[in-house]
Design goal:
335 residues; alpha+beta; Fructose-1,6-Bisphosphatase, Chain A, domain 1; D-Maltodextrin-Binding Protein, domain 2; 8-stranded mixed beta sheet; 5-stranded mixed beta sheet; 7 helices; 27% helix; globular; binds 2,5-anhydro-1,6-di-O-phosphono-D-mannitol; binds magnesium ion
């Protein structure tokens, strides 16, 4: 039996298909995989070492930063800063974007946005968490340091996006706009191997993922959708199964493989939902579309939304194409 390709071998093999020059993508993903291997190692020590729990500070969004949020943020930042192709990053855990002004500006064509640990409240209870990343070509002149406008972009301008899920195994899934491929980490070798080639999300599935604890504050449309999921007034004519881990990456990954929909709507007191457009919604929207699914804010395609702020939030409806359309139609039924 032939060994599966490593991530790097796969990139080299597909080099002609991607919009990166020779070596760029492998260096960029090399930085991300290096940091993710370090984070994988730390997460696997949770419970043994003093790495769980709050770091005692809040991020700019008023959320408690966990020790691993802070640790992972630094690891990704360091790894990306050391590669010449990145001129700046934005992160859920940084108030503002960070310019790598020491990097050779003329070689630094890319900006990277990331959520270092998504679902971090689950670390302490041994439930999968993830890392999400999004890569853009910079727009501003490479004679000068990176600018905010290099990050405030349409999701459709992404040149690559991906996530790492630290689950029963650690996996990296990414797209450069030519389909979606998944790689599983073999810790004994220290390599990611191609395990899920050309991932496709089923057109419809039987899973809905939503935090129902907020249902009392949902709009009439969202309540109507929830009622349909439970009563069986659905595409399949049967009730859907509820599955909600509370880590977006884990819920998304399951639905990508099995078929389903993840929803984080706006509701009373939370006008734009919870999730962030730059480093949560846009990268996953790019991936899901490349896998044959869709993503919207309940009305508009996520990848077409205008971004005005780094940490802008937006409602998210993402997953199997027919299920997203079904949810959008029921959301509109309140009008
Ligand atoms: P985080 O990036 O700070 O961990 O927040 C995002 C997480 C998502 O992973 C998850 O889908 C959502 O928050 C869960 O929120 P809630 O507890 O409101 O259901
Ligand atoms: Mg997150």
């Amino acid at each position: 039996m032939i060994d599966p390709l490593t991530l790097n071998e796969f990139i080299v093999k597909k080099q002609d298909e991607v919009q990166f020059s020779s070596g760029e993508l492998s260096q960029l993903l090399g930085a991300i995989t290096l940091a993710s291997k370090i984070v994988h190692r730390e997460i696997n020590k949770a419970g043994l070492l003093d790495i769980t729990g709050s770091a005692g500070v809040q991020n700019i969004q008023g959320e408690d930063q966990q020790k691993l949020d802070v640790y992972a943020n630094e690891k990704f930042k360091q790894a990306l800063a050391l590669r010449g192709h990145v001129c700046g990053i934005a992160s859920e855990e940084e108030d503002d974007f960070v310019s790598f002004s020491n990097n050779n500006q003329s070689l630094s064509k890319y900006v990277v946005a990331y959520d270092p640990i998504d679902g971090s409240s689950n670390i302490d209870v041994n439930i999968p968490v993830g890392t999400i990343f999004s890569i853009y070509k910079r727009k501003s002149s490479n004679e000068k340091p990176v600018e905010i406008s290099d990050f405030l972009r349409f999701g459709r301008e992404q040149v690559a996006a991906g996530y790492v899920i630290y689950g029963s195994s650690t996996m990296l899934v990414y797209t450069t706009g030519q389909g979606v491929n998944g790689f599983t980490f073999d810790p004994s070798v220290g390599e990611f191997y191609l395990s899920h080639e050309n991932m496709r999300i089923p057109e419809r599935g039987s899973i809905y993922s939503i935090n129902e604890g907020n249902a009392d504050k949902f709009s009439e449309g969202a309540k109507c959708y929830l009622e349909a999921c439970k009563s069986g007034n659905t595409l399949s004519g049967k009730p859907y199964s509820a599955r909600y881990v509370g880590s977006l990456v884990a819920d998304f990954h399951r639905n990508l493989i099995k078929g389903g929909i993840f929803i984080y709507p706006s509701y009373r007191g939370v006008p734009n939902g919870k999730l962030r457009l730059l480093y949560e919604c846009n990268p996953l929207a790019f991936i899901v579309e490349q896998a044959g699914g869709s993503a919207s804010d309940g009305n508009t395609r996520i990848l077409d939304l205008t971004m005005n702020e780094l940490h802008q939030r937006c409602p998210l409806f993402i997953g199997s194409k027919e299920m997203v359309t079904e949810a959008e139609n029921l959301m509109r039924s309140e009008i």
